[in-house]
Write a structure and sequence with these properties.
Layout (H helix, E strand, L loop, with lengths): L1 H5 L18 H19 L2 H6 L1 E9 L3 E3 L2 H11 L4 E5 L5 E5 L3 E12 L5 E14 L2 E14 L2 H6 L6
Parallel strand pairs: 1-7
Antiparallel strand pairs: 1-2, 3-5, 4-5, 5-6, 6-7
Length: 163
């Protein structure tokens, strides 16, 4: 599944993504954007979802390959994600680093739940490079990697309400 892969990139959708209590303003801002992106992703609101990606976004997925444009990212989301998979951020894994005169790097882990069964079994790491532009934040590069099956301990750690 290229986009289970492809958009296993980048976080939470069943509720607001919460940055750690001591989060700096940039981390809080990127956490809020992550929440908006993946709320749209989980709801299959592809117009909203697409707005957060640069037209020439480079998306690298360890099992799905590489794509180099927003249209392909959105098309893959429609084909492989919509109605099939829900993505959730592991909030404690979220880290944000500023990029001088450009934007920010977001890294973290997220897990995926099958909509039909409700089972949350897949987990992966992600990195998103965000460019701050006059019209807002845009993902210019995405890495989605380390896809694997969750351990039983990881599955038990998921709050019951998110399963």
């Amino acid at each position: 599944m290229i986009l289970f892969a492809l958009l296993a990139a980048a976080a939470s959708s069943s509720g607001p993504t919460s940055a750690p209590a001591s989060a700096d303003p940039l981390t809080a801002e990127i956490a809020a954007i992550d929440d908006k992106v993946f709320t749209a992703y989980n709801a299959c609101d592809l117009d909203t979802f697409a707005r957060y990606f640069d037209p020439d976004v480079a998306f690298f997925h360890d099992t799905g390959g590489a794509t180099f444009d927003r249209k392909t990212v959105v098309d893959n989301t429609r084909k492989y994600i919509c109605g099939k998979v829900r993505r959730e951020l592991l909030p404690a894994s979220l880290h944000v680093y500023p990029i001088k005169d450009y934007g920010a790097i977001e890294e973290g882990e997220h897990y995926f739940c099958d909509r039909a069964s409700g089972q949350c079994e897949g987990i992966a790491k992600f990195v998103i490079v965000w460019a701050r532009r006059q019209d807002g934040w845009h993902a210019t590069q995405v890495l989605s990697y380390g896809h694997r099956t969750m351990t039983e301990a990881e599955q038990r750690a998921i709050p019951q309400a998110e399963r």
